Amino acid sequence: MAIGVFDSGLGGLTVYDACAKRLPDMAFCYYGDNAHAPYGVRDADDIFNLTCAGVERLWEEGCDLVILACNTASAAALKRMQETWIPEGKRVLGVFVPMIEALTERKWGDNSPPREVAVKHVALFATPATVASRAFQRELAFRAIGVDVEAQPCGGVVDAIETGDEILAEALVKSHVEALKRRMPKPEAAILGCTHYPLMQKTFQDALGPSVDVYSQANLVAESLADYLERRPEFRGTGTDSKFLTTGDPASVSSHATQFLRYAIRFEAA
Q1: Is 70 one of the catalytic residues?
Q2: What are the binding residues?
Q3: Active site located where (predicted)?
Q4: Are residues 195 and 104 in the same domain?
Q5: What is the rounded CA–CA span in Å between residue 126 and residue 262?
Q6: Closest CA to 27 of 38, 36, 37, 16
Q7: Considering 19, 63, 154, 194, which one is annotated as catalytic?
């Protein structure tokens, strides 16, 4: 049995990498739906159906626990999956909650009532579908009160990263930050609400300025996963060899993934 990691493309590799480093004795199976990326411009039903298909493929690989390392899928599909679709004995976890718990300085699994927190003005950078879902604001409201969130849909950034066009990605990030700051001139914190965006974290930080705390997800999700497995050891696997599946062209995806992580990754056809 392995831990499944699902993403619409390559962005979830940032989460896989952090989880593998945090839990080096664990086996992981990564599924990238590169043939249908990006998800951020799709409608909710399309995202739900594609996500369910990917999760089912990971179940076939023995992954009873799957992490949706895709903010768009976590935002647009996870709640519906948990309420209507996931069978007994399987678990699917998203990537929003660990980041919100860090932002609001709550311990993992703290389900106490919402309370005042130090940060009052938060910028959210995410895909158009994640922004439209308002899932971040919904999850935040369970944990904090009095926080103003300004969301910026970052069209084009995922495409630029997936195709390796760093110059275009940097230009788009700067443009999106400028657009947000026209509406919220002085954010105190910024959330990178897409697992692709850690690759552009320095660009986000430089554009926002040194006074803004920038939160990205990979290490937070890895720590949350380690905590979850301490509490639910039945979901721990026994192997240590990881596997990488893609709906895209394995050679092309492997090449981009190797550039992405700066070490060799070999994808197989899903």
Answers
A1: yes
A2: 7-8, 39-40, 71-72, 195-196
A3: 70, 194
A4: yes
A5: 24
A6: 16
A7: 194
Say yes or no: 90 and 114 in one domain. Answer: no
pLDDT in tens, the chain (270 residues): 799 999 999 999 999 999 999 999 999 999 999 999 889 889 999 999 999 999 999 999 999 999 999 999 998 999 999 999 999 999 999 998 888 888 888 876 677 889 999 999 999 999 999 999 998 998 899 889 999 999 999 999 988 988 888 899 999 999 999 999 999 999 999 999 998 898 899 999 999 999 999 998 898 999 999 999 999 999 987 777 899 999 999 999 999 999 888 899 999 999
Quickly count: other Cβ atoms within 10 Å of residue 175's Cβ.
16
pTM exceeds cut of 0.70: yes
Overall number of domains in the chain: 2
Binding residues for substrate are 7-8, 39-40, 71-72, 195-196
- Give dist(CA 84, CA 104) in Å, integer: 29
Q: CATH no. for residue 248?
A: 3.40.50.1860
- 195-232 pLDDT per residue, tens: 889 889 999 999 999 999 999 889 899 999 999 999 99
Catalytic (active site) residue 63: no
Same domain, 149 and 245: no
Tokens of 80: 């519906």
Residues 192, 243: one domain?
Answer: no
DSSP 212: S
Which of 19, 63, 70, 154 is catalytic? The answer is: 70
Instruction: Please tell me whether residues 255 and 160 are part of one structural domain.
Output: no
